[in-house]
Amino acid sequence: MRARTRRLWTFGVAAALLLAAAALAFFALRQNANLFYTPEVLAEKGLPTPGKDVKVGGWVEPGSLTYPGDGSEMVFTIIDNSPETITVSFTGIAPDLFREGQGVVAIGSFDAAGLFTARQLLAKHDENYQPRELRPLGAGPDQNAS
Questions:
Q1: What's the pLDDT tens digit per position in 97-142?
Q2: Contact 139/101 with Cβ under 8 angstroms?
Q3: For 2-11, 43-52, 74-83, which range has the lowest pLDDT when averaged over its residues?
Q4: What is the pLDDT of residues 58-110, one digit of tens each?
Q5: Is the separation of the CB atoms in 104 and 90 below 8 Å?
Q6: Which is nearest to 50 in space by CA: 133, 141, 117, 3?
Q7: Are 40 and 84 spatial neighbours (Cβ–Cβ below 8 Å)?
């Protein structure tokens, strides 16, 4: 076998192995790539099938958090930088960082009427961590808490 033919075969085998590894990684990661829907995306694409588990995310609209009934259920509105909103109902204990004006990702499903019932809440915080010792003197305990 000539050197040129051997290099061609080596290149072909390496390319085939690289493509196989890329395909394997794509199929393995596709199952774990869970992105969340924002109100704007849901308005553009429409609501998912009722009962299908999805993630929705955005910010908790200030003034929208209510506790109807006995207090274990909460209803709030998720907003983004569009006029669209998502109404979310959650029963349970909210994460410590959950509050109005903060980011949230809710995992659950839509019902036929378009109400999102969350079974889990994930509170998001901003990236600007500031130790208590370096906070401005007028800042309250909730500001920049991480």
A1: 888 888 899 999 998 888 899 999 988 766 666 566 665 555 545 5
A2: no
A3: 43-52
A4: 999 999 999 887 778 899 999 988 899 999 999 988 888 888 888 899 999 99
A5: no
A6: 117
A7: yes
- What's the rounded Cα separation, in Å, for the pair 133 and 68? 39
Burial of 45 (0-12, 13-18, 19+ CB in 10 A): exposed
Exposed/middle/buried for residue 49 (C-beta within 10 Å: 0-12, 13-18, 19+): exposed
In the prediction, which pLDDT does 128 show?
65
Tokens encoding 27: 């199929």
Token pair recorded at residue 15: 């390319």
Q: How far apart are CA 144 and CA 18, in angstroms?
A: 45
